[in-house]
Prior knowledge:
The chain has about 230 residues and is an alpha/beta fold. The protein is built from 8 helices and 9 strands. The chain has helices at about 10-25, 40-50, 65-80, 100-105, 130-145, 160-165, 180-190, 215-230, and strands spanning about 1-5, 30-35, 55-60, 85, 110-115, 120-125, 155-160, 195-200, 200. The strands form 3 sheets. Strands 4-7-5-8 form a 4-stranded mixed β-sheet, sandwiched between helices. It has a 3-stranded parallel β-sheet with strand order 1-2-3, with helices on both faces. The protein has a two-stranded parallel ribbon with strand order 6-9. Helix 1 (about 10-25) packs parallel to helix 2 and helix 7 (about 180-190) runs parallel beside helix 8 (about 215-230).
Amino acid sequence: xxxxxEAENVERFVEAVLAVMAGAGIDGHVLVADDGSPDGTGRxxxxxxxxxxxxxxxxxxxxxGLGPAYRAAFRHAMAQGAELLVEMDCDFSHDPxxxxxxxxxxxxxxxxxxxxxxxxxRVTDWSLPRRAIxxxxxxxxxxxxxxxxxxxTSGFKCFRRAVLEExxxxxxxxAGYGFQIEMTYxxxxxGRRVAEVPITFTERTAGTSKMSGRIVWEAAVLVPSLRLxxx
Length: 231
């Protein structure tokens, strides 16, 4: 889970994830990738690692965006022997209770997406304009790329290690939510099976969203460029 100024959430969220993993019998670790948060998120994460042997912290010197944080975290986790890698936000928009369903679905898929836009999936607490922007972005990417994935921008996702070993991570340049689109598209281009499981996405109640117009524009420009070049 990438973090930047998530001091209000990180301890509660990691503890919630650990409780779900323990209850479901999941043998896993939590890796917090903190981009030098000035609010002390990294220090709080270190405290969690001191208390829990299956919590790790990757300290990065500065804020660079989701894409670079995930690439660094993937490499770190694979170096530690991880076979399944789950990415999720630290602000409770991704419900830890959904984690076992993503991991279970990975038994028959190479990439599993926690999807807001398949039957059973939903979004709560969003304004109508934000819902429209999100849904349009997914439909736009789906049509331009010619793929059958409903929630291409979802950041709640499970990858098999082999998929991440096939994808040249150094060539994945998107820093914002375009990273999610590109990773899924690259997996599909390699013949990997992508599955979607329904989730409920809930707007954060603490901390500040990192979404911006620049991130939306980056994703919009990225989509046609992916279709035009071999990835």
